């Protein structure tokens, strides 16, 4: 499923959890693991003015950190490990420079890094990576190095959701996880349109049939434990804040954007809303570059 996994690391606990999850996935998919650290150039440049030797000292410290991460990855069974140390803006350098340079098809990042002020004022590094990446992004919040146990896939019939479903299936098969397939009927549409009851029932029937088809396909591919649910509300709220907590989900898989283009443009994608609100890991799946809208 993934051939090259790029893990953004630093000395924070969040990044260490992300690195362990990246090691787990690289081992299961026999992928190359790239361990990347980006020194925040904006913060570092002012410090370097007063300490001219600061870059060499920082370089040595961070190279030692990357060596430690490499040793842990190799002891975890990953046979192909590379490291890279750069300076720049982490939220841009990771997705826009390093991911293309190494041919990564998955970026793994902790939910927040060491830049507390930036996290509070401008949004975390992980949010920047999520918005700028062209590749799939896994935002890690919990310790999942042992593998996932319960995976939720959000579906809506769109092409992006289909891709998320396919990757959710592969992850469930690799980790032996239970699979929860969820579709949210947007109740806002229920009260803001003039659709009559018969049309609404038809839409609901179609949604249930869609879930049945997804379940049949998951079982055909070998997933042993599959649950489907049709929910009502706003997907970016009900999936991470209610359903995922109630069912103790440890990974949510969502397409980068769904069918609701207006909501995506005005309010941000459902996937981004889920990633911001979830207390578990979130995998945001993107279309291959050549298939995206121009």
TrEMBL record:
Signal sequence segment: none
Entry coiled-coil feature ranges: none
Database matches in CDD domains: USP-like (cd00293)
Ranges of residues in domain UspA: 1-141, 148-286
Xref: InterPro entries: Rossmann-like_a/b/a_fold (IPR014729), Universal_stress_UspA (IPR006015), UspA (IPR006016)
Family the entry assigns: Belongs to the universal stress protein A family.
Identification of the protein by name: UspA domain-containing protein
Annotated organism of origin: Marinococcus halophilus
